[in-house]
């Protein structure tokens, strides 16, 4: 009976002891030459997912729409844009980043009539823009 109890109590050295944190052997930092690091970086970039060209999927309000008061200009953009600029009649009213930017435009400051709204998106895949004519009608 005693031999049977001893065999059941054996604890492997690989198993952590209950109520004690697991201990790990210290790891020495790798001394990697700069040329090898550069080669590894280039290999990772070569296998990175390609980024497509920056392109507008949709813009709201639609070209030719009648707007008034405070209007929000929104876009849906593909190609991982990093910077999007919104201009009204050549004057920037805002800058944003990301694939779904939104810009607030106070049409009362622009006056009634047609106005050119241009959105320009820039990203790793290039630059793209779209121009709309929005008709402002404030009372």
Structure, described:
The longest helix is centred in the N-terminal third of the chain and has 13 residues, at 34-46. The model has no long low-confidence stretch (mean pLDDT 83). The chain has 139 residues and is mainly beta. Helix content is 14%, strand content 40%. The protein contains two helices and eight strands, in the order H-H-E-E-E-E-E-E-E-E. Strand 7 and strand 8 (126-136) form a beta hairpin.
Can you list the strand order of the major beta sheet? 2-8-7-4-5
- From the alpha carbons, calculate the radius of gyration and give it in angstroms: 30 Å
Structural class by sheet pairing and helices: mainly beta
Helical stretch tally: 2
Number of strands: 8
One letter per element, helices H and strands E, the order comes to HHEEEEEEEE
| Oligomeric assembly | single chain
What is the residue-mean pLDDT, rounded to a whole number?
83
- How helical, in percent, are the residues? 10-25%
Q: Enumerate the spans where pLDDT stays under 50 for 5 or more consecutive residues.
A: none
Mind summarizing the main beta sheet?
Answer: 5 strands, mixed
Shape: elongated
Report the sheet-strand fraction: 35-45%
């Amino acid at each position: 009976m005693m031999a049977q109890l001893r065999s059941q109590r054996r604890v492997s050295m690989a198993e952590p002891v209950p109520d004690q944190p697991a201990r790990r052997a210290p790891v020495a930092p790798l001394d990697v030459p700069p040329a090898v690091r550069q080669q590894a970086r280039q290999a990772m970039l070569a296998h990175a997912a390609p980024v497509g060209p920056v392109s507008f999927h949709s813009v709201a309000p639609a070209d030719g729409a009648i707007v008034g008061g405070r209007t929000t200009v929104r876009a849906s953009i593909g190609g991982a844009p990093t910077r999007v600029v919104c201009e009204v009649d050549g004057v920037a009213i805002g800058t944003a980043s990301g694939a779904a930017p939104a810009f607030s435009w106070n049409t009362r400051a622009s006056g009634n009539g047609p106005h050119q709204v241009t959105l320009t998106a820039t990203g790793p895949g290039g630059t793209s823009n779209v121009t709309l004519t929005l008709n402002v009608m404030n009372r």
